[in-house]
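Re-run with default settings, no changes from the original entry. Doing this only to confirm the output is reproducible before filing.
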Amino acid sequence: MNNCVMKEGDLFCLTGPSGDMSGGSEEGYGLYTRDTRFLSEMELKVNGEPPLLLSSHLDRSYYTKLRLMNQTKDVGAMEIVRERYIHKGSLHEQITVTNFFPDARPADIDMLFGADFQDMFLVRRYRTGEVGHISQTSYDQEAITLQYSGKDGMERFIHIQWDSEPAEVKEDGHVRFYRILQPRESISIHFMITPEWETLNKPSLPPFADGLAALTTSYWAWTEDTMTVETDHPAFQRVFSRSVQDLKMLLSDYGYGEMPTAGLPWFAAPFGRDSLITSLYMLMLQPKVSQATLRTLAAWQGTQYNATRDEQPGKIMHEMRFGELVATGQSPFGPYFGTVDATPLFLVVLAEYVKWTGDLELVKELTPAVSKALAWIDENSGQYGGFLSYHQEAEQGFPNQGWKDSPNCIVHPSGELASSPIALSEVQGYVYYAKWQLAAIYDRLGDAKLGERLRQEARQLQEQFEARYWMEDEQYYAIALERDRNPVHSVTSNPGHLLFCELPGTGRAAKVAERLGAPDMNGGFGIRTMSTDADGYYPMSYHNGSVWPHDNGFILLGLSRIGNEAGAVQLIDSLLEASRSFADARFPELFCGYANEGEGVVPYPTTCSPQAWSAAVSIVIAQTALGLFPDALSRAIKLNPALPDGMNRLKIERIPIGEGHLSIEVQRLTTNDDLHVNVLSNTTGYAVEVGKGR
């Protein structure tokens, strides 16, 4: 069984399958907030033994229920139920022990708590550094409190309290409860664990049911405020429902509204690329998430040249961390800017947000950030032959700075690594699309001069790109240009993003789509990151043959955008076939690139799940199934549905567009396989154009 992970706000918890956090575990179990592990141990024993796990109920993203028992040779057992959630900055855990013996038996319940206050980079063994120490401890019959004095001058606390009278509280962290239980009698103990910064506030312990009810209400309200999906395709219904829960769980507010963190357990932090792509995919679900993401990233936009952090004026950050090593300057991630694609993606998301909402006021608000981002793009394109490129400067940073950021991911067919500076194909697509779309927006805002300049720059980039990236022998685009401006001659998934960006001409777009659907790229579970024909391919790689759902999301939107319904259906079918292998109904960060031979997906061993941009792919599937592309500036909505195999009905209600909502039902007419589109409701005021679909 899998580990248990949950998050609410800035707090997340990672435990083993039985609910324990084992001290010193390689998995990094613990209770974390702001990149610090506060609680590192929480181990349960009943009558001197760790219970045996019977079942896990993890269908709700915000609530975990584990059923366990004491191993015994007698006729009967002690049943243990562990329930857990996070609410208002505290972890709540309720332990219920029930006597299922035919006679009275003792229930000796022992919980061990421990805290190490370690920076997450130390937990993961990514870095070493000078850190603080536990400076004070307090133990009494009602609570345990530990205080940590950090090297950064910050005091951190963990406060553990419970609602039953303990038999014993030891200074080594053991809290013991003892009761004699009659047959079928139960005892429940509610623990509340609260991490604190700077000052210790001792919150009162509410009834366990109150927080759970409040959480359930908040998730219900989130569902009511977002679009809903009904379909006769069980695999898609299952994945979509879980994704909507997970996306809410992964939101955090860093001062500008709730935005997506990247994923659990190790990326519960604001990111540039990840948060932007997730926000882009979520436009159909909740546009205000994009608004918060854009404002947050604009607030942290680069202001100076700092090689240690790869920072430059106007650049959008890669990742922001808040732990002790960052605060003391022992790590460059406060924030770190080593990404080449976050800056153009910032502009892409802004442009797409306007298409969905018509909100030009946000563009006016962010125009200073837009101007700085465009200047950074031009500065880092002009010196590299007109293509936006990266050259690693930070000694502690990433060697590759696109979404494929592993050291060996930009590789020639010969196996030789590409030489920096590197100009990735999809990044040029983002730049092209951002400038082309922003041109229309600034035309509308009355700045025709800027609009025309951006339009000319986009056309010039398109011409240069077509001349330099096209591989005639492969009838496909290269993944990148390297130092000498020659193409890296490998067939990968990266150029698939160009379809979304509408950079290729019609003929070449069709050839890219055809190659992406070929068996060397799509083995039946989704499009691989690298062709199986390439020498560098291997299915267990991180970036050279694996399948990344978010990567497929860009390609799906692109296939739909260029009107390639057959390719879109093939890819949706592949992704939904892969989803059948995921017991938790979650698209993971990635999985191995083996072909579908009837054995299911081969999981990647260290993948993160849930991952925000993977969860958001279910929204992309819904958008692609409708072929939905709104344009608030022209007050028009295009629909060109493409239902996957096995889906004969798709009903999506309350899609937010402009200042209103759209509700659509698509049905397959079984007599001739045509699709019937019924606009159930349209309060947007926009004209709806329906294509024939597939």
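The two ends are 40 Å apart (CA to CA). The CA atoms of residues 147 and 157 lie 4 Å apart.
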